[in-house]
Amino acid sequence: MKTGATVVEINEKFGVQTVDLGVRVLSALAELGGEASLADIARSTGLARAKVHRYLVSLTRSEYVEQDSVTSHYRLGGEALRVGLVALQRVDAVELGSPLLRQLANDLGQTALLAVWGSGGPTVVRWFESRQLVTVNVRIGSVLPVLRSATGRVFAAFLHQRVVQPWIKRELNSNRKNFPQIANTGIANKIIDETRTQGLGHVQGTMLPGIVSLSAPVFNAQSELAVAMTVLGPVGALNDSPNGPVGAALKDVANKLSRRLGKTNS
Q: What is the signed CA dihedral for 57, 63, 69, 71, rounded to 10 degrees?
């Protein structure tokens, strides 16, 4: 009895390898856009084609995978979609993203915020204070400009244009008096293009003097912008280069949250 109990404990601790490999095949298929050839799936998993094929046969029987009769490609089946939709119904980008961003703020020793698109524009819903004093007039509930803040630039670049364009036009009009350097459509388009190319919103004192910030987009399963994650700090204390280590760390956290929300690499 004692030996049998030990075997069960070991199995429970290490799991079932067959299931692990089956999930690995499913995950590879999802990362490949939900449809792929046997060769591509095998290459992605690092498993032999014959082994992957056996798992695909079993997954097809259980309707987690389907095979196209014309191309012979495999795609996610109805059962996989059902399970995914049930999981997504329980996903909250703000709740999932908060601990990730809090940890990043602690690791960097900088202030960070999480923002969603609200009725008034980019709205701060989470705020994580740094260990060093940063005097900024931004808190939970603050609405940020779409062109003068790194967070706003993420929404300007990645939100549906039919949604964000009215805010951009309104801000350009108001900028003509106080911020003439960001007051015409050409400048706005350049900002949006740069943000898309860099994959980050980036400002240096355009909203808050002496404060630099970087912001990364987070996407949901429909590849729509869900939230923006932003890190900010004093000039000289925060490496704000979009290609620097802070930018890379911010992108990594944002991509991690995007994957948890169901976003694939396709």
A: -80
- What is the 8-class DSSP label of residue 145? P
For strands 111-118 and 121-128, give the pairing.
antiparallel
**Containing structural domain, residue 12:** 2-89
CB atoms within 10 A of CB 233: 24
Neighbours of 181 (CB within 10 A): 9
Nearest Cα to 74, choosing from 117, 29, 126? 29
Rounded to two decimals, what is the model's pTM?
Answer: 0.69
Q: Are residues 98 and 82 in the same domain?
A: no
Coil, helix or strand at residue 240:
coil
3-class secondary structure, 29: helix
Structure tokens at 252: 């990594």
Structure tokens, 25: 């095949």
HEC profile of 153-201: HHHHHHCCHHHHHHHHHHHHHHHHHHCHHHCCHHHHHHHHHHHHHHCCE
Look at residue 243 and give its three-state secondary structure.
Answer: coil
Residue 41 has pLDDT above 90, yes or no: yes
- For residue 244, give the amino acid letter: G
- Residues 13, 76, single domain; the answer is yes
Q: How many percent of the chain have pLDDT more than 90? A: 56
